[in-house]
Write a structure and sequence with these properties.
Elements: H1 18-28, H2 49-60, H3 64-71, H4 79-99, H5 108-128, H6 135-138, E1 147-149, H7 156-163, E2 168-170, H8 175-190, H9 202-208, H10 219-240, E3 247-248, H11 251-256, E4 267-268, E5 270-280, E6 290-293, E7 298-300, E8 307-314, E9 317-324, E10 343-344, E11 351-352, H12 354-362, E12 367-375
Parallel strand pairs: 1-2
Antiparallel strand pairs: 3-4, 5-6, 5-12, 7-8, 8-9, 10-11
Helix pairs in contact: 1-2, 2-7, 4-5
């Protein structure tokens, strides 16, 4: 005979402070959000950490009304009991509203309140099912159930489950997702509360002086990552740095770009070289002109920091000039027309169908031209 399992409704099934969750999720996407796991790798379906944290919490916490009905079957609640439900929901909402704030991601006071509520709900569920034949196995008050995300992707759900005191199990078919999850939820706990191992670490130096240094959480691991990352970067620069020359800001550049004046005489590191494919014009009169196959000439569309490339055809040669300011409408689509891989000649406007471009690529007739250089400034 099957013994029924008593499971009160969870808070997520009844009510949530959605406005607070949505606001925190939107704010999390802003560029000023520091130390965010998205910095590891841009995962296209990453869930906001605030939403994942709120959803996991509300999926594990019992709704006070349904819990009371499970504990008091057949009874009708009075006004005092109903008032207790309202107050309890308001308290749980307050915890969620604090929990979803980015600045509280590592706030132990806020997190401990959430963990205690989750553990209390589990104890209540265990109490309701203490008569179950498998209560010792399924409803152990001292052992919280784990959370398993079989398609963890960017790792938001298992990361937040771990933050809320649960044992998180994550898996995925995509090897990139597996690597992200290892970096976020598997490796850091192994080195939690340990000092760094790098030579001459702060902890080691203090140890020689008879002092002690506390490395809470993953501070020691982070110190090692910084140290060895800088070490490898220095080794790479020595070996292949000459292949990535810096750009010196000359007086000639400043004449055309006055905004570069603060960098006069400086050698700036290059973040990117922006290249463009080229193909000879289909027009017989201009068959010697290399036409750029660019989907856009806009380099930056951010308000107040607009920049674009202006192509110039002179004596049959196409060159590019970088300009700062609001770009013309023609810069948006570059030489691309319509959908697909169709382009047009910059000189004559003649169409350059996608098939002709593919044939030219197969025949080795596509060229390339440096269009712009992105250098690292003060910002």
């Amino acid at each position: 005979m099957n013994h029924p399992i008593i499971l009160p409704k969870k808070l997520i099934e009844v009510a949530l402070p959605l406005d607070a969750i949505n606001a925190a999720s939107a704010l999390e996407k802003q560029p000023f959000t520091r130390r965010h796991p998205r910095s590891i790798h841009i995962w296209w379906a990453r869930r906001p950490l605030a939403a994942a944290r709120a959803v996991i919490f509300s999926q594990l916490v019992n709704d006070p009304e349904d819990l009371w009905r499970c504990e008091n079957p057949g009874m009708e609640p009075n006004a005092q009991v109903k008032g207790h439900w309202t107050k309890t929901r308001a308290r749980l909402f307050s915890i969620i509203e604090d929990l979803v704030k980015w600045e509280n991601s590592t706030n132990e006071l806020v997190l401990s309140k959430a963990r205690e509520e989750i553990q209390q709900s589990w104890r209540e569920t265990c109490e309701l099912n203490k008569a179950h034949p498998q209560a010792g196995e399924l409803f152990n008050r001292e052992k919280m159930p784990g959370l398993h995300d079989p398609f963890a992707g960017g790792g938001a759900i298992p990361l937040e489950a771990q933050r809320l005191g649960l044992h998180a199990y994550a898996s995925d078919l995509n090897p990139v997702a597996v690597l992200i999850n290892k970096a976020m939820i598997e490796i850091p706990p192994r080195f939690a509360n340990r000092p760094p191992v790098r030579p001459e670490s702060k902890s080691g130096m203090l140890g020689k002086l008879g002092l002690e240094e506390s490395w809470k959480g993953t501070a020691g691991l982070a110190e090692d990552v910084r140290y060895y990352g800088q070490l490898m970067q220095g080794m790479a620069e020595k070996r292949i740095g000459h292949l990535y020359p810096k750009v010196e800001i000359t007086d000639e550049m400043i004449e055309q770009r006055p905004d570069l004046n603060p960098y006069r005489g400086q050698k700036l590191s290059v973040n990117a070289w922006l290249w463009v494919r080229t193909l000879k014009s289909p027009s017989p009169a201009f068959s010697h002109v290399d036409v750029p196959l660019a989907s856009t000439f806009i380099l930056s569309s951010k308000s107040g920091k607009e920049a674009y490339v202006e192509p110039i055809i002179k004596n049959g040669v196409c060159t590019f000039t970088v300009k700062v300011g609001k770009p013309p409408a023609s810069a948006k689509d570059g030489t691309k027309i319509g959908r697909g891989g169709n382009f047009q000649c910059l000189v004559t406007g003649s169409p350059m169908p996608v098939q002709s471009i593919r044939d030219a690529g197969t025949a080795g007739r596509l060229g390339e031209r440096l269009m712009a250089i992105v250098a690292e400034g003060t910002k």
